[in-house]
Fold this sequence. Notes:
Helix 3 packs antiparallel against helix 4 (64-88), helix 4 runs parallel beside helix 10 (200-231) and helix 10 runs antiparallel to helix 11. The longest helix has 32 residues, at 200-231. This protein is an all-alpha fold. The N and C termini lie far apart (63 Å). It has helices spanning 9-13, 15-19, 31-60, 64-88, 93-97, 112-121, 136-146, 151-161, 183-194, 200-231, 243-249, 256-264. The protein has one domain: Methane Monooxygenase Hydroxylase, Chain G, domain 1. The radius of gyration is 21 Å and the shape is globular. The chain has 12 helices and no strands.
Amino acid sequence: MSFDGRMSYGDYLRLDLIFDAQSPLSDAHDELLFIVQHQTSELWMKLAIHELRTAIAAIRDDHLQPAFKMLARVSRIFEQLNSAWDVLRTMTPSEYTSFRDSLGQSSGFQSHQYRAIEFLLGNRNLAMLKPHAHRENITALLEAILATPSLYDETLRLLARTGFDIGSDAERTDWRGSRQENPQVLAAWARIYRAPAEHWALYELAEKLIDLEDYFRRWRFNHVTTVERVIGLKAGTGGTGGVSYLRRMLDTVLFPELWKVRTEL
């Protein structure tokens, strides 16, 4: 029972550092909830980035089974992130107002890890680099992601390697911008979905991507609902339109041909 000089649970997890990271700036009871919810969300996003990077590399190397496991894990991570909104929604508008001024212009809109996840998934809106321009290390991290294929880009390259005609997507070399929908990619997915037994690995990969985007959409929807419940239609602390901005984000589709193929079948 003695852990003097031995690795303990708290030592391994560096709990002293974690517990010292919550520093409310007001006397409001609910500010600690707000801080803990966002810090834990950032930790889950750190894990999601780790899994996505490795899944992308596995697809690049044609190691699909490990990629399936990692993508399934990312979906479960977003399930956890969804549950976090349930806790935050216990905070009323009056309670949030009691410490909102302490936030200054800080906002989840400025989360570089969230931006990294979007870039890794393929939503590469270059204007979203601007909130991070004052941090050279973060900008370099995001630029490094933009210089390489996204999760969906690597999936399409896999289609090309396995003999599917995906048109211009097979010739792409500039990964910084978001790609356009491609009817040839849609036709390739339609072939796979019409004969899943013949293309089972690609079929399973497609469904793992759909699972991931499904959970990601739920997270975005819950974000909008939580913000409207707590601040109504006021502007966000970071200068965005708040709910109006978040609602626009709901229209973003990460893997468009995979959703459209359902209409084709």
